[in-house]
């Protein structure tokens, strides 16, 4: 699920369907989330609007086994993906590393953020060329991180791994409160993208959500979907992958029991 910031000044002041935690987030806007830059790169490549970036998300479910990271970057390299927000890489601690593409002299840069137990974790896989434009990787938690890129318009990608629908309401609200704090630390003039596994189903019903929901939703909205729609509406964001029709031959969702 990807979410793009809209460039508009027409803010809807009559939103009455937002969840209560949205009010909590607005009251806490002054509480900036502490961000620690643990990696800085030489910005030898300046991104411009002419640079075409292919950005993807992928819940890999594990990436700590021997050879698993090489398999991940091999698939991303094969599809020509520039930047991928990875969920559940399940590495310990925070940092960065190079992952070599099998049968190639090329590599990708992995920036990862996890916990002591091999659970959760958000990460980025960045191809070698685009990695020259990285300015900072800021790990926030095992569910949130920020990747910043230098260009004529600076870009920030917030990686998110949200609790599942069966998780407690407290854990879900905590994630969105923290996400709001992270979003508020970023300059509004920059290009901001929220990407990852939101574990949300926004459904196909558009009434009251036309500003954030495209014409190509599927299924029915669940509780996480309502949280995502409310967050997007409160921050004037658009759910990007509902703006276009997905090819029928592709999997629209995957369920593993």
UniProtKB/TrEMBL annotation:
<dbReference type="InterPro" id="IPR027124">
    <property type="entry name" value="Swc5/CFDP1/2"/>
</dbReference>
<protein>
    <recommendedName>
        <fullName>Endonuclease/exonuclease/phosphatase domain-containing protein</fullName>
    </recommendedName>
</protein>
<dbReference type="InterPro" id="IPR036691">
    <property type="entry name" value="Endo/exonu/phosph_ase_sf"/>
</dbReference>
């Amino acid at each position: 699920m990807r979410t793009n910031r809209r460039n508009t000044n027409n803010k809807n002041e009559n939103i009455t369907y937002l969840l209560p935690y949205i009010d909590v987030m607005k009251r806490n806007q002054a509480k900036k989330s502490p961000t620690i830059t643990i990696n800085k790169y030489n910005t030898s490549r300046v991104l411009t609007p002419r640079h075409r970036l292919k950005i993807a998300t992928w819940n890999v479910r594990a990436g700590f086994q021997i050879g698993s990271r090489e398999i991940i970057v091999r698939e991303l390299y094969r599809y020509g993906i520039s930047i991928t927000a990875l969920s559940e890489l399940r590495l310990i601690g925070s940092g960065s590393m190079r992952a070599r593409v099998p049968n190639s002299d090329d590599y990708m840069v992995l920036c990862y953020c996890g916990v002591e137990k091999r659970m959760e974790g958000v990460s980025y896989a960045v191809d070698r060329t685009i990695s020259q434009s990285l300015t900072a990787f800021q790990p926030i938690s095992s569910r949130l991180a920020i990747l910043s890129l230098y260009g004529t318009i600076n870009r920030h990608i917030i990686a998110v791994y949200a609790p599942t629908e069966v998780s407690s309401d407290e854990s879900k609200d905590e994630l969105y409160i923290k996400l709001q704090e992270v979003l508020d630390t970023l300059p509004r003039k920059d290009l901001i993208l929220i990407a990852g596994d939101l574990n949300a189903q926004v459904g196909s019903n558009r009434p009251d959500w036309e500003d954030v929901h495209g014409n190509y939703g599927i299924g029915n909205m669940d509780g996480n979907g309502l949280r995502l729609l409310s967050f997007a509406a409160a921050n004037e964001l658009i759910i990007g992958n509902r703006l276009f029709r997905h090819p029928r031959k592709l999997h629209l969702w995957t369920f593993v029991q």
